């Protein structure tokens, strides 16, 4: 996995809460709560956070790990807050609470948006309608070609409409989120349904993004179109922090 040298340590990350819930049940299970303040010291707005948190017992052994994604806006120079859950585990694994540590690694991404236009749904089942797009999304992703087709109705009259978008990562960076939205629009212009996909694309890789719609009345596809849009998030900054000493969560009622 590659990260651009431009994604330097421009995020100042601080822990504001590191707690565990009162253990519950026969298995003495608990969850870990972690709250972070993130200051964006880069020159660009951040609109996507990718967080990896690893929980260690007092002996330095990794006992839980999680990844969290958050489409939150932290403007250049501003500070934002996020909550993450490093894990759900048996409280006995924590051992001495004062010695429990959590290491947090944050990647912040900027966003590039593009509308990919409309695609007419074909008139017959299993006929493919496609178009070349050659759409450059912020010099991050190339949306190369889109197509759609639908299956013949099954015994109950249901059909599935499939939408594909051939996409290529133009960068040497791993793209942690590429968001694609397809909207099915009826012949009268009325929106019928949306389908969204969230994908990762490795550096310089090509990927076919697949979306689908399930319909109980194929006639709704007569004269219908697909409107598509996409957002590419590129890592521009990173940061990390440690938290030591987990305490019992308390609530004010």
In short, what is this structure?
This protein is mainly β. The chain has strands at residues 11-20, 29-40, 48-56, 62-70, 79-84, 88-90, 101-120, 129-137, 141-150, 159-169, 175-185, 191-201, 206-215, 225-244, 247-248.
> What helical percentage do the residues reach?
under 10%
**What is CATH's topology name of the largest domain?**
Immunoglobulin-like
Low-confidence stretches: 1-6
Largest sheet: 6 strands, antiparallel
* Structural domain count: 2
Shape summary = elongated
Spatially, the strands of the biggest sheet line up as: 4-3-7-14-11-12
What order do the SSEs take from the amino end to the carboxyl end, as H and E?
A: EEEEEEEEEEEEEEE
Number of strands: 15
Number of helices: 0
- Rg from alpha-carbon coordinates: 23 Å
Main structural class: mainly beta
Average residue-wise pLDDT: 94
User: In percent, how much strand structure appears in the residues?
Assistant: over 45%
Supply the key terms.
Immunoglobulin-like, 5-stranded mixed beta sheet, 6-stranded antiparallel beta sheet, 253 residues
List the helices and strands and how they pair.
Elements: E1 11-20, E2 29-40, E3 48-56, E4 62-70, E5 79-84, E6 88-90, E7 101-120, E8 129-137, E9 141-150, E10 159-169, E11 175-185, E12 191-201, E13 206-215, E14 225-244, E15 247-248
Parallel strand pairs: 1-15
Antiparallel strand pairs: 1-2, 2-5, 2-6, 3-4, 3-7, 7-14, 8-9, 9-10, 10-13, 11-12, 11-14
Detailed description of the structure:
The protein has 253 residues and is mostly beta strands. The chain has two domains: 11-111 and 236-248, Sandwich (Immunoglobulin-like); 114-232, Immunoglobulin-like (Sandwich). Helix content is 0%, strand content 60%. It has no helices and 15 strands. The strands form three sheets. The chain has a six-stranded antiparallel β-sheet, with no helix packed on it. Strands 1, 2, 5, 6 and 15 form a five-stranded mixed β-sheet that branches. It is elongated. The N and C termini lie far apart (46 Å). The model is unreliable at 1-6 (pLDDT under 50).
């Amino acid at each position: 996995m590659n990260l651009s040298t431009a994604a330097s340590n421009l995020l100042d990350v601080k822990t504001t809460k590191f707690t565990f819930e009162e253990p519950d049940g026969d298995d003495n299970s608990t969850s870990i709560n972690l709250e972070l303040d993130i200051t964006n010291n880069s020159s660009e707005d951040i609109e996507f956070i990718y967080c990896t948190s690893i929980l260690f017992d007092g002996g330095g052994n990794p006992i839980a790990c999680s990844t969290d994604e958050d489409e939150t806006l932290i403007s250049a120079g501003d500070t934002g807050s996020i909550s993450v859950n490093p894990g759900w585990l048996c409280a006995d694994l924590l051992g001495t609470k004062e010695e429990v540590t959590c290491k947090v690694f944050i990647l912040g991404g900027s966003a590039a948006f593009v509308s990919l236009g409309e695609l007419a749904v074909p008139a017959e089942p299993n006929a493919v309608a496609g178009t070349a797009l050659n759409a450059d999304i912020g010099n991050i992703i190339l949306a190369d070609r889109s197509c759609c087709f639908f299956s013949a109705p099954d015994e109950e009259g249901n059909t599935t409409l499939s939408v594909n978008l051939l996409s290529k990562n133009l960068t040497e960076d791993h793209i942690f989120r590429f968001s694609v939205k397809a909207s099915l629009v009826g012949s009268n212009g009325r929106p019928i349904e949306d389908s969204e996909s969230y994908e990762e694309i490795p550096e310089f890789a090509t990927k076919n993004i697949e979306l689908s719609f399930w319909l109980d009345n194929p006639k709704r596809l007569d004269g219908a179109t697909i409107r598509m849009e996409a957002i590419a998030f590129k890592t521009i900054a990173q940061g990390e922090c440690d938290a030591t000493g987990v305490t019992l969560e308390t609530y004010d009622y």
